[in-house]
Amino acid sequence: MNILEIKHRALLGTETQQTSHYQNMRLCFELLSTAKMIDLSCAQRLAPYQLSESRFVILFLLQQEPEGLAPHLLAERAGITRATLTGLLDGLERDGFILRNHSQTDRRSIIVTLTDKGKQTATSLVSDHSQWIASLMAPLNEQEKQMLSTLLGKIWTAAQEPTDHDQSTR
Questions:
Q1: Could you tell me the end-to-end alpha-carbon distance of the chain, in angstroms, rounded to an integer?
Q2: How much is the average pLDDT of 15-36?
Q3: Is the separation of the CB atoms in 87 and 77 below 8 Å?
Q4: What would the pLDDT profile of 29-55 be if each residue is shown by its tens digit?
Q5: Cα torsion angle, 85, 88, 90, 96, sign
């Protein structure tokens, strides 16, 4: 099975297949292609609900907090900037998923809550989406899952280390 994207095949075209450099590049490109396919599948699954992955995360977080959340807390928990959150909230509010109301205790503060539509969508999607995500790893046995986790951790660590190029430009 060739899971490489065309651009990755082009980048590999200059390398000799027998070298470890080629093999390392190929594995990296396979990982990137797999991640992209998961993102694409996720987007396709959420599109019928008028949701992106980011919008889905906001619904999920609000489902966990029935009394609502202040925008700065929502942004923090979603791992996004407040500016990004504002755009997401604008769209979610326009599409009837959320409401922005003044806090009962501090009229200067805004609390974001789910509408009935938002609650229904979140309730039906959270379980379904979690099952889909889990199904992606279902073909792996427990030992393979642990090995994959260990290997991904090693790649994560290597990706965070400065390269020779990074150090020479300082």
A1: 42
A2: 80
A3: no
A4: 889 989 999 999 999 999 999 999 999
A5: negative
